[in-house]
Design a protein that fits this description.
Layout: H1 4-15, E1 18-19, H2 20-29, H3 49-52, H4 54-70, E2 78-82, H5 88-100, H6 102-107, E3 109-113, H7 117-126, E4 134-137, E5 149-154, E6 163-168, E7 171-180, E8 183-188, E9 210-213, H8 215-231, E10 233-242, E11 252-255, E12 258-260, E13 270-272, E14 275-276, H9 277-286, E15 290-296, H10 297-304, H11 306-316, H12 321-332, E16 341-347
Parallel strand pairs: 2-3, 2-5, 3-4, 5-10, 10-14
Antiparallel strand pairs: 1-7, 6-7, 6-9, 7-8, 10-16, 11-12, 11-13, 15-16
The structure holds S-adenosyl-L-homocysteine.
Length: 358
């Protein structure tokens, strides 16, 4: 029995309505009932690109190897993955890097950033046969700032806490969560939010327009950019999201591969939101990195050689040909993940454009 709904109701009774960001953090991270904190939602609630085809993680690994090569094969690189899920992307990436640039792996320290101990345990199991020097930590912090940084993040930024503001006649008011008639319900904060939270280009929003901002995601992008700019390396961020400003709300709950009610069963569904790639890119520029993209996942993977890789996989597993082709199609078809998912890269301003963004 998930005790999270009672905990949330108790918190609201004690401290008043929660922001959407606070609700997301509880629903995803709570060790007793959160979607990641307490169990593994991948596969059950949703499926990610590395779980669809091994080619995805392999190409991410080649992206790292090529970026490292293009920047002069710096010594002591650190390969970091944010939110590694089941560890599949890292396992596939390490295999590809081992083939393309074994010297990288000999020198590299590998760090997996993962909050959930349940999910960490799965990663350790998956990667236990890897010879690489792997360690884990719960957050990206200054301990990761003293070496050239090669960072991968697939479907990570979409689950970072998000605040929502709704345009009303009295200004932009934050959307909060309260308890009404025994159930969780949305409510608008009575006072308008501090205007400094709303970018000037949103001033013209119609009444009812929603502005979403993931402040911790932007701070993190800026921090990663600072390390990449100062130490060298690159960051590859792949996620679903948008690259034009808008006033729609994108926060969603997904349970067992179907959209669910955001408030009905806290902790029983995966909460995520479309990534605002323009805001992420701006934050990275503020951190001092050059920003490339976003480009669509289909163009990015094609540029990295997905076609020839898929052919090789089919030649070596002819009995699996149809399944392999279907998996590859799912990654690149615009009706599936091909264009909704996008790739963004950060690199030092002095470095050449990273592969896939030429
Ligand atoms: N990258 C993986 C998993 C995506 S799901 C894949 O592509 O399959 C999101 C992952 O991020 C999970 O591993 C989840 O436990 C982790 N996570 C969520 N919020 C986090 C946070 N704030 N810090 C670190 N890890 C987090």
């Amino acid at each position: 029995m998930n005790a999270l709904p009672e905990r949330i109701a108790g918190l609201i009774a004690a401290e008043g309505p929660l922001s959407i960001a606070q609700l997301m953090t509880l629903c995803l991270q709570d060790p007793a009932g959160g979607a990641y904190g307490a169990r593994d939602p991948i596969g059950r609630d949703f499926i990610t690109a590395p779980e669809i085809s091994q080619a995805f993680g392999e190409l991410c690994g080649l992206w790292v190897a090529q970026t490292w090569h293009d920047q002069g094969r710096c010594g002591r690189p650190r390969l970091v993955e944010l939110g590694p899920g089941r560890g599949t992307l890292m396992a596939d990436a390490l295999r590809a890097i081992g083939a393309a640039a074994p010297e990288f792996l000999r020198e590299a320290e590998i760090v997996l950033v993962e909050t959930s101990s349940v999910v960490q345990a799965m990663q350790k199991e998956k990667l236990k046969t890897s010879a690489a020097d792997i360690s884990w930590c719960a957050r990206f912090d200054e301990s990761l700032s003293d070496r050239p940084l090669f960072l991968l993040a697939n479907e990570f930024f979409d689950c970072l806490p998000l605040r929502q503001f709704v345009k009303t006649a009295r200004g932009w008011c934050e959307r909060m969560v309260t308890v009404r008639d025994g159930a969780l319900a949305f409510v608008l904060a009575p006072q308008p939010a501090n205007p400094s939270l709303i970018p000037p280009d949103r001033a013209e929003a119609p009444d009812g327009g929603v502005y979403e901002v993931a402040l911790s995601a932007l701070a993190l992008a800026e921090e990663i950019a600072r390390v990449v700019a100062a130490q060298g390396g690159g960051a590859l961020i792949v996620d679903y999201g948008y690259d034009a400003p808008g006033f729609g709300e994108t926060l969603q709950a997904v349970a067992c591969h179907k959209f669910a009610d955001l408030l009905a069963e806290p902790g029983e569904s995966d909460l995520s939101a479309h990534v605002d790639f323009l805001a992420l890119a701006q934050a990275a520029r503020t951190g001092g990195a050059a920003v490339y993209g976003p480009v669509s996942q289909c163009n990015f993977l094609a540029d990295l050689g997905l076609g020839p890789r898929a052919e090789r996989l089919i030649v070596s597993n002819p009995k699996e040909a149809r399944a392999i082709a279907a998996a590859i199609d799912r990654l690149v078809n615009p009706k599936e993940m091909g264009t909704l998912f996008k790739a963004l890269a950060l690199a030092p301003k002095t470095a050449p454009p990273p592969p896939g963004f030429g």
